[in-house]
Write a structure and sequence with these properties.
Strand order of the largest sheet: 2-1-3
Structural class: alpha+beta
Number of helices: 3
Radius of gyration: 25 Å
Helix content: 25-40%
Number of strands: 6
Low-confidence stretches: none
Order of helices and strands: EEHEHEHEE
């Protein structure tokens, strides 16, 4: 019997895959556990529609990530930090602080887990941090750390 898998099934196949299984396995395990449906014209039509919707959603997400990457090129997030006598910074700027500043200063939502450059920002200057906004779409945000009081 041919079935369309609704979820990944170990040693059988991935979601949305059409596989051939025995009638007993399908009726006693796959159907009651809502892991698969029988292949019919209607179920094939629904599967194609779902795959098309998923592809469109993926394209839209990639497009919005590309627009965000272009928007990030022109912006700068500014931080002030306390420094000692020798000009060395006390502490460092974390990715969480950058995420919060981007939201408050620029109204841009960035996930701190998406940063590619995760090194500590522990000295004054300008940093260019890369962010993977979507698979294959990398944006760059400029972070400027200046001495407090200047």
């Amino acid at each position: 019997m041919k079935v369309i898998l609704l979820k990944d099934v170990k040693k059988l196949g991935k979601k949305d895959q059409i596989v051939n299984v025995s009638d007993g396995y399908a009726s006693n395990y796959l159907f009651p556990n809502r892991l698969a449906v029988a292949v019919s014209d209607k179920s094939k039509e629904i599967l194609q529609k779902q795959q098309e919707d998923a592809r469109i959603a993926e394209d839209n997400a990639k497009q919005s990530a590309s627009e965000l990457a272009k928007r990030l090129e022109d912006v700068e997030i500014k931080f002030t930090a306390k420094t000692g006598k020798d000009g060395k910074m006390f502490g460092s700027i974390s990715l969480k602080q950058i995420e919060d500043a981007a939201l408050s200063q620029l109204n841009i939502q960035i996930d701190k887990r998406k940063f590619i450059d995760k090194g500590p920002l522990d000295s004054l200057g300008i940093y260019r941090l890369r962010i993977e906004l979507h698979k294959g779409v990398v944006g760059t945000v400029k972070v400027h750390i200046v001495e407090e009081g200047k």
